[in-house]
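Amino acid chain
________________
===
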Amino acid sequence: MAASFDQIGQQFVQAYYNTFDNNRPALSALYQPQSMLTMGDTQYVGPQAVLKKLQGLGGKTVHQVEALDCQPTARGGILVVVTGKISIDDAPPMNFNQTFQLFPVGTGYCILNDIFCLNLS
């Protein structure tokens, strides 16, 4: 039996943040040439541009996922919305929201769209 969109979304989020916190360069494998990250009103397109931005965010990170919602989308995609906290270089945690549009590629998924927002208010 195939995994449900909820299972896939949960597995993706766990793998994504584990990789982000422990092996950030490996995240580039999740993005395709047409993938886009929006962060701070700026768009980054393609794995190299996305990874360059993510590498520039500082040293050690720790993500805590507090809420996770998933929905199926057209053509087998999955929309994933995450709310949580991130600590960078042992600083106090900051609230964040991140939205992923996952798209099927081969036997897995890639990140087609990624929108990250710190909630600093």
The radius of gyration is 14 Å. The chain has two helices and six strands. The chain has a mean pLDDT of 93.
